[in-house]
Structure formats: structure tokens, C-alpha cells
Amino acid sequence: MSHNNSITIAANSKHPITVNRLGYGTMRLTxxxxxxxxxxxxxALQILKEAVADGVHFFxxxxxxxxxxxxxxxxxxxxxxxxxxxxxxxxxxxRKPDKSWVxxxxxxxxxxxxxxxxxxxxxxxxxxxxxxxxxxxxxPFEKSMEAMFQLQQEGKILHIGVSNVxxxxxxxxxxxxxxxxxxxxxxxxxxxxxxxxxxxxxxxEEVLDICEAKGIxxxxxxxxxSAMPKKDGRITAIAEKYGATAAQVxxxxxxxxxxxxxxxxxxxxxxxxxxxxxxxxxxLTEEDMKYLE
Length: 293
Hints:
Elements: E1 6-9, E2 17-20, E3 24-25, H1 41-53, E4 58-60, H2 69-78, E5 86-95, E6 101-104, H3 107-121, E7 126-132, H4 141-153, E8 157-163, H5 167-176, E9 181-185, E10 194-196, E11 199-201, H6 205-214, E12 218-221, H7 233-242, H8 246-257, H9 270-278, H10 286-292
Helix pairs in contact: 1-2, 3-4, 4-5, 7-8
């Protein structure tokens, strides 16, 4: 990852963490519908080991991926963890046996999720936890966040982030305490809030200015998933110009879009993973970026 610069999480705290600016999202390391075991377990473990070898520090997971599948794979492949490695998990959601996604965000639910993440990841403390907001939740956002800050005071969480938040929710969270990171949907093809079969996905464009002003890394999810089916002629043209793949151009666009964006492209293919990593070496000119706007 030669040209990939780094980014500091929680820069103003007593425990800042600096990571390389291309992470890995583990969601794809599960079975169909982000549920159950991966079709190729050995390849999944190999990708995780390869990621560390290639200088990836930031790993994004959740105990409701699978369920518990990605956490168990991470622990199996990488525990005891390298010093530079940061595992970020998400709480606030759960899965039903029919694979549906549901809010799991009462203070008791959040505590249960944190304990479960600590157990499955074999950790004493989570370095970074995102609270994932769900639209039309019965539990007020503030109540869930209070539970997060309580667990931080108890030492179970080092840094707190938020995910899938509206601008108003982010502003509320910032008034309640220190927010280290924001994880919203963001990619070249989708920058603002969209509704899909996953529910409402809050966009990154709507919170990026707050993140930049406060030095908070923005971690895009679905940056490739949603972008790939919609063939964008401009992405294709830039890809051809540099002999790159469309996915590489999408990742490079995020890296160039703002120094505060930390992409976490996920894949279940080792070959695709290797391609994605090379996106860090793809230099887009100002003209390229203007063209892609």
C-alpha cells in the first residue's frame, strides 16, 4: 500500500489510533444474504491474513454478520491480533432466522451485543464501536447513545462512532460526547440518502462537511455494492485511461474525494481483494476528479 496515506481516529483524545487509509469490510465473508458460513471458508481466512500482510489496519465487522460469522473468522485468522490492527464493530441491529434485519438497540440489547462481540473476538475491550441507527426505531436515539457512553465509562469500549445517521442525529451525538468516526453509505453512485431492501441508508455527502470540520473519519459502506450494477460511463472511461477496474476507480475516487474518507471495500474473493488494495496506488488528477463529478 505504497501511496496510501494514513488517517487518525480520535485525534483529540488520549488514545488516538492511526491506521492506513484503506480498510476492509468483512460483511461479504458470510453466506448468501449476509447469513451463515462462507461458501469458501479457507479463502475467507486467507483474505483476512492477506489483508494484514498488505498493510490493512482497519477491519469492519458486526456480530449480526452471519450471525457471529465474521467475528469468529477474524479471531480464527488473526488472534492474537497485530498491534497496528483496529477492529471496529457495530451494534444496534440483529438478525431474525428469516434473515431480516431488526433494531436491537435498547440499553440492554446494546450491552448484550458488546459482551457478545468481546467474547467472539476474544477481546477485553472494543477499540471502536459504531452504534447503527435504524429508521423508525422504538428506542430514542439518545437513549441508545447514553448506553454506548455508559459502556465506554465502564471500559468496555475505547472509542464510539455512529453509523447510518442523519445530519441531526450526528449533531445530537456530538453534543452528548466524543464521536470518533461516522459510517454512512457513500460511493460515487450514491452519496445521499437512499431507501433499499435493507431499509433507509443515510448518505455520506450529507454529513461529510461536519466530519471534515471536526476531523472525524467518514467510513463509507456499500461503496461498491450499489455502484457496480449502475454502469457509469465516466467511471469506465477513467478505468480504461489507467488500465484499472471500475471498482478500483470507485475506491480511488473516495480516497481523492476527501482526506477524511476511510474506504472499507469488502469482497469474498482473494483476487478481487488484491485488485481493491491496488486502488490505493491509483492517482487521479484534478481533471479526472472534475470529470467524475
